[in-house]
Amino acid sequence: QVQLVESGGGLVQAGGSLRLSCAASGSDRSINDMGWYRQAPGKERELVAAVTSGGSTNYADSVKGRFTISRDNAKNTVYLQMNSLKPEDTAVYYCNADQWIGPVRNNYWGQGTQVTVSS
After folding, report:
1. pLDDT means per 10 residues in the chain (119 residues)?
2. Which of 39, 58, 92, 119 is most buried, judged by most C-beta within 10 A?
3. Measured over all CA atoms, what is the biggest interatomic distance in the chain, rounded to whole angstroms?
4. Please, what sign has the CA dihedral across residues 59, 64, 66, 71?
5. How far, in Å, are 27, 50, 83 from residue 47 at the CA level?
6. What's residue 30's pLDDT?
7. Tell me, what's the pLDDT at 26?
8. What is the C-alpha separation between 12 and 85, in angstroms, rounded?
9. How far apart are the first and last CA of the chain?
């Protein structure tokens, strides 16, 4: 069973920056894809950014050029550097991880961390 622990959320003014971290623990098997999702009040959860174990990345159009996802495989940790933050980035941000064990895909979620951007 994999546990995901997020940190780094908080309150920031528009134009500011935050860095989120998510550490995976509880398994000695490799973690495959990792990513960040967010959910704003009254809206569905959406993908923000994802990174494969090989380092390939994918971003939502709304954050391209402002957010950067990276990972440290040795530490089983994924990061989200968020720059030029906008009020519309306000949401609870969730870490997500896939772990394949043979043909079985296990998917895990963190508890979420609040990001609030004031105008």
Report:
1. 94 98 89 96 97 96 98 94 98 96 94 97
2. 92
3. 47
4. positive
5. 24, 8, 17
6. 85
7. 87
8. 8
9. 40
Instruction: Name the nearest CA neighbour of 62 among 43, 75, 76, 46.
Output: 46
For residue 70, what is the DSSP state?
E
Provide the 10 A C-beta neighbour count for residue 65. Answer: 9
In the block, tokens 């990972």 appear at 71
How far is residue 119 from each of residues 13, 84, 115, measured CA to CA in Å? 6, 12, 13
Closest CA to 104 of 4, 28, 32, 23: 32
111 vs 86: CA distance, rounded Å? 23
Quick check: helix, strand or coil at residue 82? strand
Structure tokens at 41: 């009040």
Write down the residue that tokens 């306000």 correspond to: 90
